[in-house]
Design brief:
single chain, 194 residues, alpha/beta, Rossmann fold, five-stranded parallel sheet, binds dephospho coenzyme A, binds adenosine-5'-triphosphate
């Protein structure tokens, strides 16, 4: 089974592109989706203990948590030390299930692939990219997003150019949905032939 990892900086189009891989029949595991599940479940008491008053009715309040960690690298590290091992365990269970079903290709959508060293677990890497002005426009149009918040996030992520230099495949989402879909189809074809 080929483990194909998908990554990219904020707003580059990872989630949208991962849905295109799913539409091609590949099982897809999203680290972000797992974090959302964990924050409404078993991670909530751990986070409340480390960051008091960030959990409301048993669910992590992401806005509160974000305000506590985004400009405090030490706090972010403490949060990651709680969350990343749980995500990693879910990822392993997903890969095992895909192997059991004899899948030829499994996709891991991992926003912080290079930053967390997860790239060593991948057979091939797809970097999802778009021109910087497209990225900014997309991200700044989200509710609650500000220039300052975007700068803080970008400062914690590996620059897009560096990510692209490490990619086996690149999907540029700056040319519309159809172009991205064609790129995804070609990647799936290449991977299934490996
Ligand atoms: C800080 C939190 C609460 C902010 O939540 P929010 O819903 O506002 O934003 P979201 O999760 O969509 O992230 C926005 C952007 O920040 C990036 N980002 C998230 N966590 C991190 C991090 N640890 N380091 C660098 N960038 C990060 C994401 O890739 C995304 O591009 C949340 O991102 C979080 O809990 N992060 C820690 C867990 C983690 O590392 N998740 C990343 C995938 S495993
Ligand atoms: N191929 C594409 N063509 C046009 N628009 C796209 C394309 N791919 C993604 N987009 C748009 O870009 C925006 C960001 O996409 P998406 O949410 O998939 O990004 P992301 O990388 O997962 O974001 P984040 O890092 O914040 O989780 C969305 O509005 C989406 O519709």
């Amino acid at each position: 089974m080929i483990v194909l990892c998908l990554t990219g900086s904020i707003g580059m189009g990872k989630t949208t592109t991962s849905h295109m891989f799913a539409a091609e029949g590949a099982p897809v595991h999203s680290a972000d989706a797992v974090v959302h599940q964990l924050y409404a479940g078993k991670a909530a008491p751990l986070i409340e203990a480390a960051f008091p008053e960030t959990v409301v009715n048993g669910v992590v309040d992401r806005e509160q948590l974000s305000a506590r960690v985004l400009d405090d690298p030490k706090a972010l590290k403490r949060l990651e030390a709680i969350v990343h091992p749980l995500v990693r365990a879910e990822e392993e269970a997903f890969l095992e299930a895909a192997r059991q079903r004899s899948a030829r290709l499994a996709v891991l959508d991992v926003p912080l692939l290079f930053e967390t060293g997860a790239d060593s677990r991948c057979d091939r890497i797809v970097v999802v990219t778009a021109p910087p002005e497209v990225q900014r426009e997309r991200v700044l149009s989200r509710p609650g997003m500000t220039e300052a918040k975007l700068e803080a996030i970008l400062a914690r992520q590996m620059p897009d150019e560096e990510k692209r230099a490490r990619a086996d495949f690149i999907v540029d989402t700056g040319n519309g949905m159809e172009a991205a879909r064609l790129a995804v189809k070609a990647i799936v074809k290449r991977c299934r032939a490996l």
